[in-house]
């Protein structure tokens, strides 16, 4: 069963808010400790709340906490606030991200719609039935498809040129095909078996010359 997505909003119920704070405070401190230990980075977290008389601090030692804070305060003001984000800024960032995703999805849907229209026109649908906006978008889709075809042709042409350049000069295609066949495992195994059997006796060879009686059944 999937977990229910938590709504990012202020919890109005006092009991639920206090329970959530205690649970997430413990998780936050654990993550800060893991981040510092696993990645070897300097990290510090200070939490003030109406539920605790003293702030909750990590690292646990005052010296380490002071060292991290001193290092942070020594940075220029612009660098200190470069990646800071309050609740309002976080919501704006989230909304902007969702808008970008929606815009991308709308574009993909529109492309699929225009591609379907293109196939309908190829199937006999008249252009007089298509709106100006659809025709404009159709032109863009067709041009993109043509570019993809041209790029693919160019790529295949370069591959063919590279293969031709790798061939040894003066060697025919038949010779290269024979060499390729001789490198196949089944051919090498067949040759090894023939070497183990020794030379073929004369009585097992096919007749040549005018005596072609063995082929009479197949070639009239």
TrEMBL record:
One of its GO terms (molecular function) is protein dimerization activity. Keywords: DNA-binding, Nucleus, Transcription, Transcription regulation. One of its GO terms (biological process) is positive regulation of transcription by RNA polymerase II. It is found in: Nucleus. Residues 1-49 form the MADS-box domain. InterPro entries: MADS-box/MEF2_TF, SRF-like_MADS-box, TF_MADSbox, TF_MADSbox_sf. Signal peptide: none annotated. One of its GO terms (cellular component) is nucleus. PANTHER family: SERUM RESPONSE FACTOR HOMOLOG. This is MADS-box domain-containing protein. It comes from Tetracentron sinense. The lineage of its organism: Eukaryota, Viridiplantae, Streptophyta, Embryophyta, Tracheophyta.
């Amino acid at each position: 069963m999937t977990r229910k997505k938590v709504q990012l909003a202020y919890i109005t119920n006092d009991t639920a808010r206090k329970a959530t704070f205690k649970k997430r405070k413990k998780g936050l401190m654990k993550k800060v400790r893991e981040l510092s230990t696993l990645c070897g980075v300097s990290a510090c977290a200070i939490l003030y709340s109406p539920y605790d008389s003293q702030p909750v601090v990590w690292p646990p030692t005052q010296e380490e906490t002071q060292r991290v804070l001193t290092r942070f305060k020594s940075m220029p003001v612009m660098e200190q606030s470069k990646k800071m984000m309050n609740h309002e800024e976080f919501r704006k960032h989230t909304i902007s991200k969702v808008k970008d995703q929606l815009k991308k999805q709308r574009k993909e849907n529109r492309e699929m719609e225009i591609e379907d229209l293109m196939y309908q026109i190829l199937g006999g649908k008249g252009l007089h039935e298509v709106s100006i906006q659809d025709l404009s978008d159709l032109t863009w889709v067709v041009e993109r498809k043509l570019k993809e075809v041209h790029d693919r042709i160019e790529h295949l042409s370069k591959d063919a040129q590279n293969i031709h350049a790798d061939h040894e000069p003066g060697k025919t295609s038949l010779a290269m095909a024979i060499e390729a066949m001789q490198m196949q495992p089944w051919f090498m195994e067949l040759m090894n078996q023939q070497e183990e059997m020794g030379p073929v006796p004369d009585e097992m060879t096919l007749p040549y010359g005018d005596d072609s009686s063995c082929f009479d059944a197949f070639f009239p």
